[in-house]
């Protein structure tokens, strides 16, 4: 620091000189850490803007460049954490590729769609939901004999549907 007449202090470090002398070296340091030169430039620029806003205080530090460097590194670390968090979020939101249904599943779905609703429901509940005839009867509020009848008719209709579809594909 230099002194003016009357004992008042004057900032010995000029902001413009500090900026021009250290912007490039700080940018190179951050680019090596962060891996992106343009991001490093933005971060160092932001650190210098913060220094400029507080220049009355920062200029009196023993090493104002160290303060700017610390701010730039903190900004880089914060940005890196935000990017990592965003990427983690995006990975969790990404849809997984699921292959389409195989031909057997398409044929079964088509055959089930052709069944009467009651038959289709008991076939699905029994074979896919693993419910017993008693459980299905309770759920559908019908006698067990009715469930057995629907199940038998549904299976027979499915077998006929699937057999006719296989004949069509075998002859093609």
TrEMBL record:
The keyword DNA-binding applies. This is SigE family RNA polymerase sigma factor. Gene3D superfamilies: 1.10.1740.10, Winged helix-like DNA-binding domain superfamily/Winged helix DNA-binding domain. Signal peptide: none annotated. Keywords: DNA-binding, Sigma factor, Transcription, Transcription regulation. InterPro entries: RNA_pol_sigma-70-like, RNA_pol_sigma-70_dom, RNA_pol_sigma70_r2, RNA_pol_sigma70_r4_t2, RNA_pol_sigma_r2, RNA_pol_sigma_r3/r4-like, WH-like_DNA-bd_sf. Residues 18-84 form the RNA polymerase sigma-70 region domain. Belongs to the sigma-70 factor family. ECF subfamily. Pfam families: Sigma70_r2, Sigma70_r4_2. The lineage of its organism: Bacteria, Bacillati, Actinomycetota, Actinomycetes, Micromonosporales.
């Amino acid at each position: 620091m230099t002194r003016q007449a009357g004992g008042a202090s004057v900032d010995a470090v000029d902001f413009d000189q500090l900026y021009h002398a250290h912007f490039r070296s700080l940018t190179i340091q951050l680019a090596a850490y962060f891996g992106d030169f343009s991001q490093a430039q933005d971060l160092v620029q932001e650190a210098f803007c913060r220094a400029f806003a507080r220049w009355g205080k920062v200029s009196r530090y023993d090493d104002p460049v160290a303060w700017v460097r610390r701010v730039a590194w903190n900004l880089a670390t914060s940005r890196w954490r935000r990017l990592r968090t965003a990427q983690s979020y995006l990975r969790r939101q990404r849809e997984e590729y699921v292959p389409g249904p195989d031909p057997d599943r398409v044929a079964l779905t088509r055959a089930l769609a052709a069944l009467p609703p009651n038959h289709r429901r008991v076939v699905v509940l029994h074979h896919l939901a693993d419910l017993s005839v008693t459980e299905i009867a309770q759920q559908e509020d019908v006698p067990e004999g009715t469930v057995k009848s629907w199940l038998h008719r549904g299976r027979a209709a499915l077998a006929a549907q699937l057999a006719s579809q296989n004949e069509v594909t075998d002859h093609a």
